[in-house]
Write a structure and sequence with these properties.
This protein is mainly α and 339 residues long. The protein is 76% helix and 3% strand. The protein contains 7 helices and 2 strands. The chain is rod-shaped.
Amino acid sequence: MEEDTIMTNTNETVKKPLNTKLITIIAAVIALILIIAGGVWGSVVKRAQAVEACTKANTAYNAAYTGYEKAVKNASSVLESVPADQVADAKTRESLETLAKTSVKKTPAAACDINLLSAWTATTSTIDQQAQTLTATSGKLDKAVKAVQESQKTKQLNDAKSAAQAKLYEANQLYQSSDGKVADNQTRDQLKTALDSLTNTLNDTKASVEGVNTALSALQQTVDGVNASVQAKTDADNAAAAAAAAAQAQQQTAQAQAQRSQARSSQRSTQRAQTQQRSTNRSSSGSQRSQQAAPRANTPAPSGNSGSSSSGNEDWRKAWETQPPSPCEATHNCNLAVG
């Protein structure tokens, strides 16, 4: 048994036994107080942690749902802007359409009014799982959107290459057929350069729609240049041919006029000769008739009519000389029968 030392007025030291029962009670009370205080403090800390976790879970869920809504909106926009015939693989668009139709309703926020007792059992596992599901769905939507966009680019590249191949064939035909038919042969050299450039672009495994279209546009410009040069030469040739034809026509007209003039001159000469011949024929015929008519003229005319007979013969001769030539006289084929 422990003893305390007590000082007395007589300066004598007296040893007194301690009350151990009281000490035990006091210690137990203090321990209990400490336990209670520790439990309360632990509950307070736990509640604070639970409230913080609940708040963070709600924030994460809201962010996940906002991301999901954005992904759905983006998917709907892509589906609207990219028709089924504008993708190389139709299955990519079908997958995106299926995902976009799957609607997820927003879950109410978790209750974060946690007390000291419920703090020890509070959990955010449900809302955390929902947030994870939304995030995964958004990721699937984004991946499907990217697949559709890539398929669209593939289709656009294939279409651009097809158009370029058709133009390449057409331009090659023009290059071959335009040899010697252009006003400026430099246009054909430019066309050949553009043909080689487009061919190299089409053979490039990393070719893009922009690259193909740029090379195709350059080729089209050179094709237009060659066509314009061909047309210029054609126009020049036609103009030269027209000028030559006009000169030839003018020459032929001049020759025809000369021939007509010569013919008219010859005709006038012939007419003069025919007139002279008719005059000669008439003079000869008149002389013969005069000679044949002379004896009859010496025959005594009836009394009182001699003047009248002489006048009649003179009138007859004038009438004969002034009459137009007969057809046989015109052809100098007359056999005159006199008497």
